[in-house]
UniProtKB/TrEMBL annotation:
Residues 227-237 have a biased composition (Gly residues). This is DUF1415 domain-containing protein. The lineage of its organism: Bacteria, Pseudomonadati, Pseudomonadota, Betaproteobacteria, Burkholderiales. Residues 195-237 are annotated as: Disordered. It holds the Pfam family DUF1415.
Length: 237
């Protein structure tokens, strides 16, 4: 899913939504993600930013939006930025800027930024380690999520260490062939969704793609991060 200069925002959003439903929810990478998706509490935003300054402007705007919104109407935001920070090292560096933005707005401790990238690599892992796939999204994105949602999940008995171990085992069982097949499924799901959307005006009866998220609740991050996604051991080096 290589970003292109003239990428279709609708396709970017559709592929990202398919990834959430097929991988994050479908593989159980996040045990509390389904209800936010099923209840329509996930905001998908495709940024047209072509440089870091423009992306930061978009991020700050989305921070204000989720901070001002009632959690019953908006649980988490995925800010997808296909045109900028396609290099993982550059993306990784930007996470400090994202955290600083929260700090400047006095929202550290209320909101978090979780990190996902097509070339995501956890510290102390090889680039081709399949467990990196837990944070590998179709396009670079920043997830805004509420600290209170994570705290509720932990208070309800969520064992975050067990979640991490389960994710590693799931991805190791899946292997690279399985992950590649899943990525192909993202694209197929997105194409069906796009055809269904276009068909609503032109007669197609193809339904939107997606998996039933079941009874989970909470944000979509595969594991509750400590600080930003980078501070949870994801930053390379």
């Amino acid at each position: 899913m290589n970003p292109a200069a003239d990428v279709d925002p609708a396709r970017v959003e559709a592929e990202t939504r398919a990834w959430v439903r097929r991988a994050v929810i479908g593989l159980g990478l996040c045990p509390f993600a389904g209800a936010a998706d099923a209840r329509g509490l996930v905001r998908y935003v495709v940024s047209d930013a072509r440089d870091i300054d423009a992306l930061l402007d978009d991020l700050v705007a989305e921070i204000h939006r989720i901070a001002d919104a009632d959690p019953s109407s908006l649980e988490t935001t995925l800010l997808i930025h296909p045109h900028v920070l396609n290099d993982f090292d550059d993306y990784n560096d930007f996470l400090d800027i994202a955290d600083a933005a929260l700090d400047e707005l006095d929202l550290t401790g209320e909101l978090q930024v979780a990190s996902f990238h097509p070339d995501y690599r956890f510290a102390d892992t090889d680039e081709d380690d399949v467990t990196n796939a837990s944070n590998r999204s179709p396009y670079p994105l920043l997830q805004l999520l509420r600290e209170a949602s994570i705290e509720r999940a932990i208070d309800s008995g969520l064992d975050t260490d067990a979640v991490v171990e389960a994710n590693l085992e799931t991805l190791e069982r899946l292997g690279h062939p399985g992950w590649d097949a899943l990525k192909a499924a993202f694209r197929r799901d997105a194409e069906l969704e796009l055809q269904g959307t276009r068909g609503s005006a032109g007669g197609s009866d193809l339904p939107p793609a997606g998996l039933d998220g079941g009874g989970c609740s909470g944000p979509l991050a595969p594991t509750p991060p400590s600080g930003s996604g980078g501070d949870a051991g994801s930053r390379d080096g």
